[in-house]
Amino acid sequence: MPGKAYPDVPLYRYDWGRLSEAAIGASIGDVVMKGPQCASPLDLSLAGRTMQIVTDADGPNAGPTLSYRFLTGTRLILSENGGDGVNAGYSALSLEHLTFFAHLIPGTLRGYAVVVDNRTGLVTAFELWFAGQEAKREVSRAVWQGYLFEKGRDAPPTRHRSTNRMEGKGLYWKTDAGDETLEFYPSISYSHWVELTRLDGRQGYCAPSDYIQIDDRFYLYTRTEAEFSGIFSTTLIDLDRLRQVGLRLGFNAADELEYRLFTGAGEWLGQIAQFEKFGDVSGGPAKPRPGPGQTGQLDPNAKGARGIYRPLGTMPKMTRAQVDAAVKQNTRVFAPRTGEGSGAAGMATNGLPSVDWLAGKSFTLRYDGGPVMDYRVRSADELQWRKDGGAWVTARYQAYEPSAGVILFGHVLEGEPNHDGHSICADFVNGLVTTFNGFLNTPYFANEAGARTLFGTIEMEGIASPGKRRHQRTDELLGRALTWNYAPGLTSMHLYSTPQTVSWIIFTDSGAGGLEWSGPGDFVKIRDDLYFAYWLEDACNGTLGTIVINMRTMHDSGIGYHCGEEGLSMSQIGAHSRHAGKFDIDRFFKNKA
Amino acid sequence: MEDKSMTSRRSFLKSGAMVAAPVALVATPAVAAGVGDEELRMRLARMVDSRAIEALNRRFVSQFNAADERGLAALFADGRAPELGRGIARLVLEDAAEPEGIELSADGSRARATYVCRAEVEHILEGHDTLMQMARLQGNCAHRTSEPGELRIDYVRRQGGWTIERVRLG
Question: Does residue B89 sit at the A interface (CB-CB below 8 Å)?
Fold first, then answer.
C-alpha cells in the first residue's frame, strides 16, 4: 500500500511498489497530452517551429532521427525515424541560448528530454523509457548526441560530449517548487545527493548519473534513482550563474507519477580535487564491464547500457537462526581477508602494523550508561574480557597505534546473543575511550551490522581520571572528501555529506571517480586532527567499517566487522589518504547534528 | 577437419609490409618469372585471401582489446566471442616478431595462422568486501602483467567471406 510521496524511512528501507507496465501506462495516459507541469512560466516560443534532429550512433545502436512540429500552446507532433507523426503534450524552458523541452509519447512508456543549443545547432536528446529494468518503475535512459538538420548545410563537426569537467563540484539547489537538495558530483558516472526538504536531510544517497558538457558554462546532469524510486531527473546547469532548468520524471513512494519541469537557483558548495592525469577530460558513463572475477550477464552494447551498482540484490539476506549457525560455524578474527592465490591482504595491504602495546596490561573501560568492560591482555593477540563483572572470556584481538598513545583494538564478544564486536579507540594519554559496538540480529536482515557509539573512560594504574571529559561527536569532517588507497587497484574516496552519512566512491583505473554508494555513519573527535568514524553498509553488504583517521599522517587504521554466509569476521582495514577537499555545507546542518 | 593439408605457405606480413608484398608480387613480370596465367591467377587469389585474413585478424585484435563482445562475436563462424583465458584483457601483436605465416588449405576454404604476441593479463581484486565488488564491477584490477604468447587462429571461408573458427592462446 503506497504511503507518503517521500517516506520517513531511508530510501533503501522503503518497500517500493512493483508497478506493472499497465499501471505505468495508465499514469502516463493521464498526463501525456498535457505535457509536464511546471511552477515557472514556460517558454512558448517554439510554437510554429519545426525541428529535425539527427543523432549519432552510440556504439552498435543507431541514433534516432526526431522530426518535431511544435503547434500552438503546448502540443507537438513527433515523427521518429521517418515514422508516422504522433501528437503529444510538451513543456519547454529556456536558459539563455539553450532550449530544454520534454514530452512523453502516447501509447508508449517512452519519451524524450531534449536540449537544443540555438547558437551552435547541437542537440542532446535523452530517450527515456519505463520497464527497461527489473524494477519497471525505474526510468532507463539513452543519451543521443546530434544536431539540428538544415537542408543544404553540412553536419557540424562537434557534439556535446560526456565530460569529467563537472567532477568534484558540489551545489545546493532550490527549485521553483521549493525543493532543496545538496548535490555532489564526485564521479564521472555517479552522483550523491541529500534531500533537505522532501526528506529529513540526515542520509545522503547515490545514483547513476551522466555529465555532458555543452560549453564551458553549461552542462547537463542526470540522475536515476536506481534501487529506490527509479525517478529520473536531468538538469541543464549554468555553472557560472548557478541556475538550472530541468525535468523530473518517475513514480514517488506514493506511486504517483511526477512529471514536471522546474527551474532552480543554486549556491556554490565547493570543488574538490580530481585525480585523473592532467589533460584528461573524458567522461562516463561507466559501461557495464564484466572485469576479471566479475560474473553476471551485462551487455555493454545494449541501448543506454551503463554500470549500475545494485547492492541489495546481491547481498545475502540471513535470518537470525542462519546468523547464529554461521557465527558458530566460522568466526574469524583478524584472519587473512582474501581468497587463495593473491597473497595480498585486501583492504589491509596498506594498513598499519599491529602493536603489542597492550600486552601485559590490565584496565577497565567504563562506558557512560554501561557496560563496564574489564581487560587482562595476555599477549600481542590474546586478551581476556569480562562484561559488567561477569565471567572472563578469552578472545583474539589485534591492536594498532594510529597516533601516539592512542590504541585501536578490536575483538568479538563471544557468547553475546547478538554476536557483538567492539572496535575500541582508547586514548591512554588522556584516559578516554570511544567504542563502536557492532552487533547483528538487526531488524531488516539479521546479518546486517548495527552500531552503537559508546563514550567512556579508561581506568588503569598510572592514568589520571579525565573526570567528566569525554570524546565528542564532531562536525569537523562534515563536507570533507578523503581518498583511501587500500591496495594496488583499490582506491576509494569517502565523502562525509551529512553528519550521519558516509559515501564512498571507487576510482577507476584512470583515476576518475566511478561507482558510488553510501550508508549511515558517525564521527567522533579523539584529538586535534584525529577522528574515529564508522560507516554501515546498510542494504548493501551489511558491514560495519570503523576507522581512526589521522589527518596529520594521512593514514587510517581500521577494523571491519561483517557477517555473511561464510560466518562472522573481524578484520583490519588500512589505507593511505589524500585530502581531496571540503565542501562548505556546515550551514545546512546547524542544530541538526 | 583441422588436419586438411595446408599448402602455399606464405609469409605472414603485418602493417606496412602487408601492402608492399602484393605490390611486389604484381610488379614482377609474369613472363620473365616463367609463371603461367593459371599460376598467376592462383597466386593473386591467395594474396587476396591473405589480405582478407590479415584484415580480419586486425579487427579481431582491435575488438578484443575494446572488449566489444558483440563486434567480436560477429567475426566468428559460430557467432560467439571466444574465451581466451582468465583475466586476459589485451593482446599486443609483436611488430618485430618473425612472421609465422598463413597456411591456406588446398581447396581455399580454410586457413590457419600463428602470431607472436604479448597478452596483458589483469589480476583480479580478490575478496568479498563491498569496495572489491564495486571495483570489479567497473573493471578495476589489482595489477596487469604482460606475458609472451602465441595466438593460433583457424579461419573458415563462409559465403560472406573469411570468419574465425577458433582462437587459441598458448
Answer: yes
User: Per the CB < 8 Å rule, is B69 touching A514?
Assistant: no
Q: Do the bridges between strand B143-158 and strand B161-169 make them parallel or antiparallel, or are there none, so unpaired?
A: antiparallel
Q: Which residue has the higher pLDDT, A133 or A292?
A: A133
Tell me if chain A has a CB within 8 Å of the CB of B66: no
Interface test with A, best of B90, B137, B145 (most A CBs within 10 A): B137
The position carrying cell 567492539 is: A422
pLDDT value of position A342: 34
Give the model's confidence band at B34: pLDDT under 50 very low, under 70 low, under 90 confident, else very high.
low
Closest partner residue to A346 among B122, B129, B137, by Cβ? Answer: B129
Our CA-based measurement puts residue A165 at a distance from the nearest CA of chain B, in whole angstroms, of: 20
Q: What is the set of domains in chain B, with CATH numbers?
A: 6-169 (3.10.450.50)
Helix (H, G, I), strand (E, B) or coil at A63: coil
Q: Is A243 helix (H, G, I), strand (E, B) or coil?
A: strand
Residues 6+ apart with CB under 8 A from A441: A320, A323, A417, A418, A419
Q: Which residue type is seen at B115?
A: Y
Q: All 3 cell numbers of residue A351? A: 594498513
Q: How far is A423 from chain B (nearest CA, A)?
A: 18
Cell numbers for B93, please give them. Answer: 601483436
Question: What is the reported pLDDT for B14?
Answer: 31
Give tens-digit pLDDT for B124-167. Answer: 777 778 898 888 888 888 778 888 988 899 999 998 899 999 99
Put simply, the chain A residues between 183 and 222 with a CB less than 8 A from any chain B CB are 189
The reply to whether residue A506 touches residue B135, judged by beta carbons under 8 angstroms, is yes
Model pTM? 0.87
Q: Which three cell numbers stand for residue B140?
A: 578495476
How far apart are alpha carbons A382 and A561 in whole angstroms?
Answer: 18
Q: Which residue has the higher pLDDT, A91 or B37?
A: A91
Are the Cβ atoms of A309 and B137 closer than 8 angstroms? Answer: yes
Cα nearest neighbour of B133 on chain A: A294
Helix (H) or strand (E) holding B54: helix B37-65
Q: Which of A307, A490, A517 sits opposite B125 (nearest CB)?
A: A490
CB-defined contacts A:B, below 8 A: 121
Residue (of A477, A430, A426) closest to A454 by Cα position: A426
Q: What is the DSSP string of A1-59?
A: ----SS-SS-GGGS------HHHHHHHHHHHTTT--EESS----TTTT-EEEEEE--BT
Where is B59: in which H helix or E strand? helix B37-65
d(CA A86, CA B131): 47
H or E segment to which residue B72 belongs: helix B69-73
The three cell numbers locating residue A559: 577494523
- DSSP labels, A161-222: EE-STTTTEEEEEEETT--EEEEEE-SSSEEEEEESSSS-SS-EEEEEEEEEESSSSEEEEE
Say which amino acid occupies A152.
G
pLDDT digits (tens, 9 = 90+) for A37-73: 999 999 999 999 999 999 999 988 999 999 999 999 9
Task: Tell me which residue has cell 608484398.
Answer: B21
